[in-house]
Write a structure and sequence with these properties.
Blueprint: H1 2-15, H2 23-27, E1 31-33, E2 36-38, E3 48-52, H3 65-75, E4 79-85, H4 96-113, E5 116-122, H5 130-144, E6 150-153, H6 164-179, E7 187-189, H7 192-195, H8 198-202, E8 212-219, H9 227-238, E9 243-249, H10 261-273, E10 278-283, H11 310-322
Parallel strand pairs: 3-4, 3-10, 4-5, 5-6, 6-7, 7-8, 8-9, 9-10
Antiparallel strand pairs: 1-2
Helix pairs in contact: 3-4, 5-6
């Protein structure tokens, strides 16, 4: 066996070729060091990928292994976000077993594909569902403890008027439930005003736990998400707050609006300059600016250019270019 390995290694060197590694093999377990999310080599991995839509409505049907495989192989994503709906009809509060099955289907396939995956508690009012959140993340942490692919996102977009104190108090109760079973994997905490007030968070970050980062959201063409919002991100980064863009879209915050490529480029350049990882919203076939698929697109991937929306064609092109 040792002789065989030596021969294979020699052939690789002679041929000048290398065995392809998955994103997780390349980057390993993620950590927060000196205000940045870094890989096993201590450098920002800048993961880029797709957020599935709510695990409800049109987006639910794309929570299947074939769709994940297509995103990994064709879109070349290095991270996927599984946005598990909590409050709406048929969400976790009403049908926890069904929602857990959808979430685990995506997470397990992401692990199989060697990409990172965000387990997203997609709830605007998580502070009102603390017991359910703790139960959910306890179950997830028990199942995926130590699996380097897995990232926990414990509150999606706290509703507008919710304070940082409320978010912080919620996090202080949920994080220990995860850490009982998974002491190391990255945990993402939301911020007030739909994950935009990261400048406020930077003045009073969570302490006492390692590997905690914060989500930052924007919609590139939204009139309210321009220089002033980027300045919030800049201030947070300057203060050493580790950020990840777990959701952004090419349109406006309502999912529609104009797809303004100039405004999108400004945000894209900002993320690249700051080496921020991101997932783009969203994989669904809804008739909407930020939806990546045209209505009726197949559920199992294999999407043609005609089945991709303008946003889908653009994001696919960017991912294939940047994640080469």
């Amino acid at each position: 066996m040792k002789r065989l390995i030596a021969i294979l290694s020699f052939l690789i060197i002679v041929c000048g070729c290398a065995i392809a590694q998955t994103p997780v093999q390349t980057n390993g377990a993620l950590n927060v060091v000196n205000g940045q999310i870094v890989n096993k080599n201590g450098v920002p991995p800048q993961l880029r990928g797709i957020s599935l839509s709510w695990s409800l409505w049109q987006g639910r049907k794309y929570y299947n292994p074939a769709a994940v495989d297509w995103l990994a192989g064709d879109f070349k994503i290095t991270i996927i976000r599984a946005a598990m709906g909590v409050e709406p009809a048929h969400g976790y509060l009403q049908e926890p077993d069904a929602q857990i099955q959808l979430e685990e289907t995506v997470v397990d396939e992401a692990i199989k594909q060697g990409i990172y995956v965000l387990i997203d508690w997609h709830d605007h009012h998580s502070n009102l569902h603390l017991a359910q959140s703790k139960a959910f993340f306890t179950q997830m942490a028990k199942r995926y403890a130590g699996v380097p692919n897995v990232i926990y996102e414990i509150w999606n977009e706290p509703w507008g008027a919710i304070s940082w104190d409320t978010v912080k108090n919620y996090a202080a109760r949920v994080i220990p439930e995860i850490r009982k079973y998974d002491p190391d994997n990255l945990i993402i905490v939301g911020s007030p005003h739909w994950d935009q007030d990261v400048d406020v968070v930077a003045g009073d970050p969570i302490t006492g736990f390692k590997n905690i980062a914060y989500s930052f959201h924007f919609y590139a063409s939204d009139p309210n998400h321009q220089e002033r919002l980027r300045a919030k991100g800049d201030l947070a980064l300057k203060k050493g707050l580790p950020l990840i863009v777990t959701e952004w879209g090419v349109g406006e915050s309502n999912g529609n609006g104009k797809f303004d490529r100039t405004l999108v480029k400004a945000w894209f350049d900002w993320m690249e300059k700051n080496k921020l990882s991101w997932t783009n919203w969203n994989l669904t076939d809804k008739q909407e600016t930020t939806a990546l698929l045209m209505p009726g697109a197949p559920v199992n991937g294999g999407w043609t250019d005609e089945q991709l929306s303008p946003a889908g064609q653009y994001i696919r092109g960017q991912l294939r270019e940047l994640n080469k």
